[in-house]
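Budget justification note: compute hours in this period were largely spent on complex prediction jobs such as the one shown. Inputs:
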Amino acid sequence: MSYSEEFRHAPLVRRLVHQIAIEASCNRAYRFMEFCGGHTHALARYGIEDLLPQNIEMIHGPGCPVCVLPAGRIDAAIRLTKKENIILCAYGDLMRAPGARGHSLLHARASGADIRMIYSPLDALKIAQAHPGKEVVFFAIGFETTTPPTALAVQIARRDKLKNFSVFCNHVMTPAAMRHILKEAQSDKASHSLIDGLVGPAHVSAIIGCEPYQDIAQAFERPIVIAGFEPLDILQALLMLLRQVNTQRAEIENQYDRAVTDQGNYSAINDMADIFEVRDNFEWRGVGILPNSALKLGQDYRGLDAEERFDMTAIFVPDNPACECGQILRGRKKPRECKLFGNACRPETPLGACMVSAEGACAAYWAYGRFRDEAGVS
Amino acid sequence: MPKNHRRIPLDLQNGLVELAHGAGGRAMAALIGEVFYPAFNNELLLEQNDQAIFSVDAGRLAFTTDSFVVSPLFFPGGNIGDLAVNGTINDIALGGATPQYLSASFILEEGFPLKDLVIIANTMGDCARSAGVKIITGDTKVVERGKADGVFIATTGLGVLRTDIVLSANKITPGDCLILSGPIGDHGMAILSKRENLSFETNIVSDQAALHELIERIIDVGGDNIRVMRDPTRGGLAAALNELAEKSNIGFVIDENKIPINSSVAAACEFLGLDPLYVANEGKLITVVAPSAASAVLNAMRDHPLGREAEIIGKASEDSRFFVQMKTRFGGRRIIDHLSGELLPRIC
Amino acid sequence: MCLAIPGRIISIDDTDPLIRLARVDFGEVIKEISLAYTPQAKIDDYVLVHVGFSLSVIDPVRARQTLEDIEAICGLQEADLMGENS
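Corresponding output:
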C-alpha cells in the first residue's frame, strides 16, 4: 500500500458519494464545518463539494494558521528584519501573508531584508550554524501538528549552545478555537443550528489524540469526526457525521484511526508541555482575542524567545471594516457575500484572513469554486 | 579561428571572471575569443563585427527575445545554456517559423568560474548546432560580485515562416481539441530538487528540449486545422491555458485523468504541497486543433520522441467568463485559476 | 490540518539520538526526516511526515480495515472492484 492512492480510488469515491446522497434526508439541510485548512484545500482540490448532495453544505473553519496570524505580528517580524544582523526564516505559505498596508515578508525581502523560506525548523538551525555572526530568528506558526518540530528545534539549540538562534512563537491551539466557534454558533439567535457537526483535523489529532475533543462534543452537543485528508477519508467522515446527526448523537469518532490514536503522540505532547506555556490571551485574525489559545516559550527557554531577546511588540492592526472574514470563519456568511471579495480583495491583494493563504475559505472559493454560483455553467 | 597575438591567455581551468572581462579591452577580447567563438563557431560570428549581416528569403519573419535567470545554473537534465538556446528556439518555432539565428547576451558576475562558463557556452553551441541554428552575435558585460547570480543570459531569435500558416489564439472556436505533448512538471521540480532548504533526492530530470521538429510535424499534418500552440513554461499548464482563454475569449474544460505526469514528479509535488498544473515545463507544448484533425495530429506527435506521451486533454468551450475548468478524477469540477504571485510550497 | 504525507523509512541514522534522522521514500522522492517523535518507528514502516518530522506511524492493519469498512458501506466485494474502470 502507498497509503494515499488507495484512498483516492475513484469508483469507491463515487459509491461513497452515492451512499451519502441516500442517507442525507431530503427534509433538512446539513451544515458541517471542516475545521482545518488542509481539509478546505482537499475539498477544493478534489472537487468534493461538487459531488455532495445540495442539502449538505460545507463551512470552512478557521484552522489555517497563516490566515489567523494577526497582521500586527507579521509587521513585528518585518520590523525586526530591518535590523542588519537578522536572518528571518519562515515557511513558504507565510511569505505572502499581508501585514499592515498589505506588506508581506516577500515585499520585505524585495526591499532588502534577509528572509529565507525553509521547509523545516531544522533548516533554520542549519542556517544559524552556518552564520554565527548573524541572529537567526525562526518565525514559528502552526497548530499542534507544527508545534512539536519547533519544540525539538528549541531543544537542539539549547543542547548545541546555539547562541544566535531564537524563535518568534505564534503557535495556536485547536480545542480553544473549536470551543469558541461552537459557542458563537450556539449563541446566535438568528439560527438554531449554524453548525451541525465538525470534521476534525487529521494531523493535529495525530499529535493531541481524541481526548481533547470529548468535552467539546458534550458541552455543545455536536458530533466531531476526525478525518484523514484523502477523498475517501473525508467522505467516510461526512457519512459518519450524517449518521450521528440523523440519530441525534454527539460523539467523537475517529475515521483516521490508521494514524490517530485516542491518546495521541505521547512524546510530542510531553515535549510541548515541557517547552511551552499557554498565553493568557492571543489575537486571532478575523476571530478576535481568545484566552488560552496560543503558546509561548516556557520559563526555562525564555532565552530562546525572540520576543524577549529583541523586545518585539505587536501592534493591533484592524482589518478593512468591510472585511467579512469574521462572519465567514463562523459560517455565517459566504465569501461571495463580502463586498470586497473579487474586487479589492483577491489572491494577489488579500485584505483579510480568508484570502491570505490558499486554504482560506475565500481563497479556496476563488480558485476552485466560484464558477458554481454563476449562471451558465456548462 | 582568427588569431590575435595580443590576446591574453585565460586560465580556463581555474580562472575566474573579472571586471576586466567586460571592460571592452584585451581581457574581454580574450574571453570572447577563447570561450564564445569556439563554442558558437560559425562564419557570421567569426567575422567579429558589431553586427551580423545576412539575407533572408522574402516573406514573413518571426522575432523573439527571452532572458534566463534560472537558479541553480546547473540542474538535473541541463543548465542555463540549454534553456537559453532551446527556450528561444521554441518561441520562434511556436509561431510556425523555422529558427535560424540567435544572439546571446551575457551578464556575468565577477568571480564566476571560467570553467563553468565554458561548459555553458559549449552547451549553447551544441544545442544550437543540433537544431540547425547559429548564434551569430552577442554581448558580454561583467558586474561586481553579488550583483548577479553567476550568469544571466538573454537570447534573441530570428526565424522564417516557410508556409503561410497563421497561428493565433483568435482562431480557437468552441469544440476545438487541446493536445498536450507529454508529462507536466519535470523541469520545475528538477530545479526545486536542487534548491537549498527544499532539496530532496530524486531521479527527476528537466524536460528541456528544442521542439521545432515536433512543431514542424504538427504543422505538416494539421495545416490550417492548427489554431495555435504554446509552451507551458513559467506558471505551468495553468498559466498557458489561462492566457489562451483570455486572448481567445473562450473557456477550456480539461480532464484530470488525461493529463500525463510522471509518478516521481507527482510525489515531489505532494511532498512540497505544490500543484503540478502550475509547475514549469521547458520541453512541452500545447496545441489547439480543429476536432477533425485532432486524431491525426495526436498520432503524428506520438511518432516523435518528444511527443510519445501526447494526450488530448480537453476542449475549448463556450464560456463568457473565460474559465479554465477541470473535471477532477472523481467527476467533480474545479476552476484552474491563473497563478497569483510566486509558486510557494505549503506546509498546511 | 497540516500537510503531512506518508512515506516509507528506508534507512535510519542514529548518530544524533535527539534528532534521529532517517531517509524516507515518498515514491521516488527521498528526503531526510527526523524520527524524533516516533521513537518506535523502524525500517519499512510508513510514517506521516510534516515539516521534516514524522508525526505518527501508519498502522497497516487499521488502514486495511478502513478500506474494507468503506467497501462494505458501498456494498462492494473485492471482485467487483477489480472489474470496475476508473
